[in-house]
Amino acid sequence: MKKYGRTFHLPISLGATSDDKTMSSLDGLRLDDLVVTEKMDGENTTIHSKGTYARSPDSRYHPSRDWLKAFAAGISPQLADNERIVGENLYAQHSIGYDALQSYFLGFAWIVENDIQPWDVTIIRFKELGITPVKILYRGQFAEGLFQSLADKLDFETQEGFVARDAAGFTDIEMPNRMGKYVRANHVRSETHWMTSDLVPNRLAKKCH
Question: What is the structure's pLDDT at 197?
């Protein structure tokens, strides 16, 4: 089991704090094929062949993870020992409440060994496994001002931010250069951490019930 790597903030990200890391250059994202997906306000979670864990393998129990464990029970037997699926567990409401989710788990990475797989084959793998991917906000060529333009279109009451990545595959050690995130300012809007608050489930879209 391996912890998912840290995604550095884009230089324009408003939500970066002193504890966060920010990309020193956008050179690794100046590409002909970028994928920009919505950053969901959930819990980073890994599904692997033996089960699941949240953010790190030693994460403790929380009732919001019960649904995810049941969901992962149908996915894990289909995974090889060297495969990991990473996504957001959105069962519990954090700072943003969702009322029309397509699933309580939205995937954003398929990792084989230490390689983050290309986006297009990741989507194929997700379809095989019955995993819903995060929403794509942009797919195409890098352009100056692109990230600011995307940030300006966000609704900060309902959207936390976005993640830009190279559509091609890359190793996990390349993440600081090939992937970056934009997060809204003051994205944590409660003095009480969601894990110590009463559990408030997000809601699925009607057709998903």
Answer: 64
Q: Is 40 exposed, middle or buried (0-12, 13-18, 19+ CB in 10 A)?
A: buried
Q: Is residue 10 part of a domain?
A: no
Total number of domains constituting the chain:
1
Residue 37 to residue 59: CA distance in whole angstroms = 26
For residue 177, the surrounding DSSP H or E stretch is: helix 175-178
CATH of the domain at 35: 3.30.470
Domain residues for 154? 27-208
Residue stretches of the chain with pLDDT short of 50: 189, 191, 209
Would the CA dihedral through 208, 206, 68, 97 be positive or negative?
Answer: positive
Residue at 86: amino acid letter: V
Output phi, psi for 171, to 5 deg. Answer: -80, 160
Instruction: Dump pLDDT digits (tens) for 86-121.
Output: 999 999 998 899 999 999 999 999 999 999 999 999
With respect to residue 195, please indicate whether it lies within any of the assigned structural domains: yes
How much is the pLDDT for 2? 79
